[in-house]
Every structure is written in C-alpha cells, then in structure tokens.
Write a structure and sequence with these properties.
Layout: H1 11-28, H2 39-46, H3 52-70, H4 73-97
C-alpha cells in the first residue's frame, strides 16, 4: 500500500484489490481456493469486513487535505515569517560587523 495516496483506482482496479484482499484472507485462514465458500462466508468466519479499499480511500483523503493546506494561509504564514526572519538575521549580523 506504499504510495496508495496517488493511485487512480478504477472499477477494474478496485475489483482486483478486493480479490487480492480475499485471497490474502483465505490464505491466512488456510481455506483452499477450491473450497466452495463464498466471500461473505469467509468474512463471517474471520469476524471481519473488507478494509483495504476503505483504508486506501482514507489515505487518499488525508493526502488531499495535506496538499490543499499547502496552498492556504498556514503555508504562507510559516514560509513568509521564515523568510523575514532569515533576512532580518542577516541584516543584524552585517550591522554588528560594521
């Protein structure tokens, strides 16, 4: 899931991710792929739900919020204040030398 924040998830990709998630779950529970068990039955036996897609969507939303905040006031205040301090410190040091 490394870098999933930038993934574009189509319906086909979503189906493949869900199938992979179920394959992992079946492997962990040692359920053969030839066993005639539905995905719902496997999920009930594991006492879980499908989590992979929801985790990816949550990470994408968090990343989107991070990117949107970058352009807002928080970034301007912190970067502009830093620039002013850096310029002011240089001026003070040069005035002390003179």
């Amino acid at each position: 899931m490394y870098g999933c924040e930038a993934w574009t998830i189509s319906k086909q990709t979503q189906r493949k991710l869900e199938a992979t998630e179920m394959w992992f779950l079946r492997r962990m529970m040692r359920i053969s792929w030839t066993a005639k068990k539905t995905n719902d039955t496997v999920l009930e036996e594991a006492h879980t739900t499908r989590l992979l897609i929801s985790k990816i969507r949550k990470r994408q939303a968090t990343f989107f919020g991070h990117v949107m905040r970058r352009e807002k006031l928080e970034n301007l205040v912190t970067t502009e204040c830093w620039k002013e301090n850096a310029v002011g410190e240089n001026n003070e040091k040069s005035s002390l030398k003179a």
